[in-house]
């Protein structure tokens, strides 16, 4: 069995986001895994889920780009799962949509 690979990756410096496409009962959805790459004492690339102070801004930028990529894919598919609206503006899976509050 072949190991599943991310559908897309975003890399800035040594901060990487792997975007995974998942299938659920309500259709496809995405998840994101963020890591910091580093080289160990044996010269082999490793990854860590912890970040140093100087990594945080890059991690935010990587996550922003991952979010934009996912949003574009969902718009192309005609479904904005965040609002629950399809391309024609109708509600689709309203139970899954996040509530919208005014401030």
* Radius of gyration based on Cα positions: 17 Å
Which term fits the overall shape? globular
Provide the succession of SSEs: EEEEHEE
Terminal CA distance reads 50 Å
Helix content: 10-25%
Total beta-strand segments: 6
What order do the helices and strands come in, and which of them pair?
Layout: E1 8-12, E2 15-24, E3 27-39, E4 45-48, H1 56-76, E5 79-80, E6 85-86
Antiparallel strand pairs: 1-2, 2-3, 3-4, 5-6
Explain this structure to me?
- Residues 83-103 have low confidence and may be disordered.
- Helices cover 20% and strands 35% of the residues.
- The strands form 2 sheets. Strands 1-2-3-4 form a 4-stranded antiparallel β-sheet, with helices on one face.
- It is α+β, with helices and mostly antiparallel strands.
- The chain is built from 1 helix and 6 strands.
- It has one helix at residues 56-76; strands at 8-12, 15-24, 27-39, 45-48, 79-80, 85-86.
- It has a domain at 8-77.
- Strand 1 (8-12) and strand 2 (15-24) form a beta hairpin.
């Amino acid at each position: 069995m072949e190991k599943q690979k991310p559908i897309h990756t975003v890399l800035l410096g040594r901060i990487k986001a792997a975007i995974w496409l998942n299938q659920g009962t309500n259709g496809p959805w995405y998840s994101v895994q963020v890591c910091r790459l580093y080289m160990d004492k044996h010269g082999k690339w490793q990854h860590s889920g912890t970040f140093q102070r100087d990594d945080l801004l890059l991690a935010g930028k990587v996550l922003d780009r991952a979010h934009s990529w996912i949003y574009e894919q969902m718009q192309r598919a005609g479904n904005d799962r965040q609002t629950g609206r399809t391309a024609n503006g109708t509600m689709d899976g309203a139970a899954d949509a996040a509530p919208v509050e005014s401030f």
